[in-house]
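Continuing the series of single-chain predictions for the mutant panel. This is the parent chain; the variants come on the following pages.
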Amino acid sequence: MTSPYHPPVKRSVEIAGHKTSISLEPLFWDLLRQAAEAEGVPVNALVARIDVERMAADEPPGLAGAVRLWLVSNLSQQ
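Parent structure:
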């Protein structure tokens, strides 16, 4: 895992057939990769699922925020 004190890194992901970019700190990219591996799905598929969940919220956060929140929630359930 990389140092937690690093500025966000922008990467492209594909959701529902279209590309978008997300800026996350390297620590969150590492955690996202690990979560995708643990679930046996590609990172894009996990991000797409998080996107669907966030859009169902009464006040959906931005995608990067939703990914961070999902990861923290996922960690707290382990």
